[in-house]
Design a protein that fits this description.
The protein is mainly alpha-helical. It has ten helices and four strands. Bound molecules: protoporphyrin IX containing FE (HEM). This is Cytochrome P450 4B1-like.
Length: 233
């Protein structure tokens, strides 16, 4: 709940080009995986899809680069740095910029950019699609929506804001969020390259070096409509 405010303040107030670039990259990456002829780098970079991918990459990298530059500029001012150090919650980029290894060496610009790219993508794309699909589920199944509302109202009483301690009491709401994440996972697939061969119980195996694709399950448990018996992940 408090993760996004740590990330967003400096990064939110921009035009939408970063978000469009991420949306393009997500779509193009999936299309590339699905099209065998695109697996070869040389061929892919010559295609219109490949060129669009490179363009979107540049937009995304330019954005994170600008965020890092602005942050570094602000931190040159010692007073500003002291003020930041005193804050109860440091924002993610401030932590990275202040981080040093045992020998006192700071992160290189390339390391910083890699971290910021990962967190900025992971931080906004997953949560926005997770929230959007959860709202869709609530709209589609009003009986569960009512149940969630009643639960939250009962826990809040006359409080006008939610505290950390309240979250653990919202068990029905939590089940609905988890069920929505199961049905519409923001990260539907993850990939791994096998460092050693893997054998399965049915006798089949995969050799080392092979890339594997794990698809999140959407079908093995009761669907949202039977929430009464919904699974507890
Ligand atoms: C509903 C929200 C989210 C979902 C469903 C989600 C899901 C995932 C999944 C499935 C992975 C593993 C990917 C893999 O093993 O290949 C992952 C990794 C990661 N997530 Fe999230 N995530 C969410 C929110 C966030 C947020 C808010 C942040 C940061 C602000 C974040 C940062 C990361 C990072 C840094 C990694 C590791 C990436 C790597 O090592 O390559 N995630 N996430």
């Amino acid at each position: 709940m408090h993760i996004m405010p740590l990330l967003l303040p400096r990064w939110l107030c921009r035009d939408s080009s970063y978000y469009s670039a991420i949306s393009d990259l997500t779509l193009l990456a999936q299309q590339r995986i699905d099209s065998f002829q695109y697996h070869n780098d040389f061929i892919y970079w010559l295609t219109p899809h490949g060129r669009r991918f490179l363009k979107a990459c540049k937009v995304a990298h330019d954005h994170t680069d600008q965020v890092i530059r602005e942050c570094k500029e602000a931190l040159k001012d010692e007073k500003e740095w002291e003020k930041i150090q005193k804050r109860r919650h440091l924002d993610f980029l401030d932590i990275l910029l202040g981080a040093k290894d045992d020998g006192g060496v700071e992160l290189s610009d390339a390391d910083l950019q890699a971290e910021v790219d990962t967190f900025m993508f992971e931080g906004h794309d997953t949560t926005t699609s997770g929230i959007a699909w959860f709202l869709y589920c609530m709209a589609r199944y009003p009986e569960h929506q009512n149940h969630c509302r009643e639960e939250v109202q009962e826990i809040l009483g006359d409080q006008d804001s939610i505290q950390w301690g309240d979250l653990g009491k919202m068990s029905y709401l939590t089940m609905c969020i988890k069920e929505s994440l199961r049905l519409y996972p923001p990260v539907p697939q993850v990939y791994r390259q096998l460092s050693k061969p893997v054998s399965f119980v049915d006798g089949r195996s995969l050799p080392a070096g092979k890339s594997s694709d794990f698809v999140s399950s959407q079908t093995s448990s009761p669907p949202f409509t039977s929430m009464g018996s919904c699974h507890h992940p």
